[in-house]
């Protein structure tokens, strides 16, 4: 398998009409949110923004102008806002809080610090996740071959990974470090080259939980919010690539639960909710700061039922869909991490192994092409015969990238041409391994 840096593909146009899944609400009832809740949200926007025009409120709240007129009219009757002519470069009328409105907004902020687009009710969110489920996507041999056409990978491995992706069950990949588990697991996201709708936030009663995370969710640029407005799409959702969430040794159990920030009084969704509609990879399992059985036991019910059970610091409980392709990846033996009962719950256990000589040559050639240097099969074979075989070092797919890169670093230092030599590669070998296997 070759090992260039992974680049997520640009998704194709949506395979569905976003307006069919999430039409833009034009009435209060269509939002699924109470009048008081939306009025409080508008007050918080005005408290934060000062004098805001109708256009600014539409962008901030993700609500239609028609609906905002109704809400603003109610707030004016309540004496909580007033209309004011705007100054400077923003002509026209603006809305501003009255003294009564400021007091009301401050009280609302003490309850919830969320100030953003109007959330989607939990019930609506559940519906949209199910309508665009990642499990409805089907993987064929042709799709697998296309997705990994630029990767050196045993066809038998593709024929194991493909059915695993169709199963909807968790996938356990294991093998020695450097065998390509993480790289190949992340490349599986290429199979999902379409898009899904991710809400900015969801509302559970009066509590708002943020879901959209710009570090995880990649907006589909060809379908900007402006375009979506003309198509009737609800801008409380963002059209994104199907998410890919990867977490490793930094994982803690609290990252799998709703997180509350007491300073901002805001809730944020856990990793698996952010991953809904896509993939969640737990990498380097067994290296976390918590015992692996605690991490794995957290997934037993979601894996079996397709539902995740969450709670907030207030003790309020709720359920969300668990619509992810879940991948566990470890350098350790699975039997050292979990018992047989848990392993039976995971449909596919797929081992990654070192390369054979032919595959190693192919990876070496790909890396040479990436660096723009001549591929010399005799030089590659020399590395195998002179260094790998005598020391018993396995042929790992990460080695060509690392060794060639180090040899070229040396060339730059010595002001030499970008040409691979046995001398440079031997030097790289001696610097790559802490102690060269088989030598004293």
TrEMBL record:
Region (Disordered): 1-20
Protein name stated in the entry: AAA+ ATPase domain-containing protein
AAA+ ATPase domain ranges (all copies): 167-352
InterPro entries, per the entry: AAA+_ATPase (IPR003593), P-loop_NTPase (IPR027417)
């Amino acid at each position: 398998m070759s090992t260039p840096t992974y680049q997520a593909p640009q998704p194709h146009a949506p395979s569905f009409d976003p307006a069919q899944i999430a039409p833009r609400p034009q009435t209060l009832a269509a939002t699924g949110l109470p009048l008081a809740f939306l009025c409080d949200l508008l007050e918080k926007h005005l408290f934060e923004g000062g004098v805001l025009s109708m256009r600014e409120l539409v962008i901030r709240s993700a609500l239609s102008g028609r609906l905002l007129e109704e809400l603003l009219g109610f707030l004016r009757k309540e004496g909580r806002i007033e209309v004011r002519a705007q100054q400077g470069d923003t002509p026209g009328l603006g809305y501003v809080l009255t003294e009564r409105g400021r007091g009301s907004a401050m009280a609302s902020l003490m309850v919830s610090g969320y100030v953003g687009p109007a959330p989607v009710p939990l019930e609506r969110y559940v519906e949209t996740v199910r309508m665009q489920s990642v499990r409805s996507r089907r993987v064929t041999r042709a799709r697998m071959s296309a997705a990994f056409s630029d990767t050196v990978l045993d066809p038998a491995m593709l024929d194991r990974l493909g059915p695993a992706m169709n199963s909807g069950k968790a996938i356990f990949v294991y093998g020695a470090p450097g065998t390509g588990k993480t790289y190949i697991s992340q490349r599986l996201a290429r199979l999902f080259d379409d898009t899904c709708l991710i809400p900015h936030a969801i509302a559970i009663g009066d509590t708002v939980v943020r879901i959209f995370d710009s570090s995880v969710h990649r907006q589909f640029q060809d379908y900007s919010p402006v375009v979506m407005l003309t198509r009737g799409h609800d801008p409380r959702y963002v059209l994104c690539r199907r998410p890919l969430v990867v977490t490793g040794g930094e994982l803690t159990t609290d990252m799998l639960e709703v997180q509350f920030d007491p300073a901002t009084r805001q809730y944020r969704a856990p990793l698996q909710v952010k991953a809904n509609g896509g993939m969640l990879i737990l990498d380097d399992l067994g290296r976390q700061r918590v015992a692996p059985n605690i991490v794995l036991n957290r997934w037993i019910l979601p894996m079996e039922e397709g539902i995740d059970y969450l709670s907030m610091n207030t003790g309020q409980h709720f359920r969300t869909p668990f619509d992810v392709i879940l991948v566990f990846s470890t350098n350790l033996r699975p039997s050292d991490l979990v018992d047989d009962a848990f392993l039976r719950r995971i449909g596919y256990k797929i081992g990654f192994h070192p390369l054979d000589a032919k595959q190693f040559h192919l990876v070496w050639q790909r890396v040479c092409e990436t660096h723009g240097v001549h591929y010399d099969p005799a030089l590659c074979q020399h590395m195998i015969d002179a260094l790998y075989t005598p020391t018993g070092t396995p042929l790992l797919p990460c080695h060509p990238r690392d060794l060639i890169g180090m040899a070229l670093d040396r060339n730059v230092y010595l002001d030499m041409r970008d040409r691979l030599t046995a001398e440079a590669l031997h030097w790289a070998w001696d610097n790559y391994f802490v102690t060269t296997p088989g030598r004293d």
